[in-house]
Amino acid sequence: MFLFGDRPFWWVHESGYYSQAPAQVHQFPSSCETGPGSPSGHCMITGAALWPIMTAVSSQLATRTHSPWVRVIPSLAYCTFLLAVGLSRIFLLAHFPHQVLAGLITGAVLGWLMTPRVPMERELSFYGLTSLALLLGASLIYWTLFTLGLDLSWSISLASKWCERPEWVHVDSRPFASLSRDSGAALGLGIALHSPCYAQVRRAYLGHGQKIACLVLAMGLLGPLDWLGHPPQISLFYIFNFLKYTLWPCLVLALVPWVVHTFSAQETPPVRSS
Ligand SMILES: O=P(O)(O)OC[C@H]1O[C@@H](O)[C@H](O)[C@@H](O)[C@@H]1O
C-alpha cells in the first residue's frame, strides 16, 4: 500500500485539510501525472538510466587522469541532475518530498544492481518471453485485484478530476502506457540484438564522426516516431505504444548504425595494401 501515494495536486482537495479555506494550487502541463505518487517515476527512471553512463564516464576518467577531483565530476553531475529533477517534481506538485527521495534511492539501487546484468547474449526467446511475462503478469494482477474490488486505476480518476485542464492529463503517463512501453522495449531489444544489421555493426569499428552521425540520425528518426502513434482510442494507443517502443531499440542499436556504417564505408576509399 505504500506504493499508492497521493500526489499533492489532488491531495490538497481530497484530504479534507483545506475544506475550510480552499487552497489555491498552481498546476503545470506536467503536474497532471495519472499514476500513483510513490515513488517518483521520473527520479527512479532517470537515476537508474544515468547510473551506467555515470560509472562508465567515471572509469574512463580514472584511467586517463590522476586527479581525484576530476574523477568525482561524473558523480557530482549525476547527483546535481537528479536533485534538479527531484526538486522540479516537488515544485510542480507532482510529488511530496518523501516520494522523490524514495524514487532517487530506488533508481540509484536499480542502476547499481542492473548495470552489470544487462542481458546482451541471450536467445531471442528470452526477450520475447520477458515481454510476454511483463504483459501477462501485470494484466493478471490488475484484473485479479479489480475482480476483488480493488481498482488500480483510482489515480487516473483523481488526476482527471483535479487536473486544471483536461489536455494536461497525458495518456502516456498511465501505468498501462509504461507497461506497453517496457514490454515493447524488451521485445525490441531482442529483435535488434538478433538482427543481421546488428551482427554486421558489432564487428565494425565506428569512428567519432560515424557515432555523431548515428546520434543525429537516431534523434531525427525518434522525434517524428514519438509524434506518431497517438490514436484517440485507448486500446489502440497501447498497441501503437508497444509497437513504437519495439521499433526504438531496432532503430538505435541496429538499423541506424548499419545505415551509417554501410553508407560511410562506401564513401571511404579502400586502403591499398602494399
Ligand atoms: O512519478 P513521476 O515522477 O510523476 O513520473 C511518472 C512517470 O514515471 C515513469 O516511470 C513512467 O514511465 C512514466 O510513464 C510516468 O509518466
UniProtKB/TrEMBL annotation:
Q: Which GO terms describe its cellular component?
A: endoplasmic reticulum membrane
Q: Which UniProt keywords apply?
A: Endoplasmic reticulum, Gluconeogenesis, Hydrolase, Membrane, Transmembrane, Transmembrane helix
EC number of the protein: 3.1.3.9
- Name its cellular compartments: Endoplasmic reticulum membrane
Query: Care to name a GO molecular-function term for this sequence?
Result: glucose-6-phosphatase activity
Q: How does it sit in the membrane?
A: Multi-pass membrane protein
Similarity field: Belongs to the glucose-6-phosphatase family.
UniProt protein name: glucose-6-phosphatase
Gene name per UniProt:
G6PC3
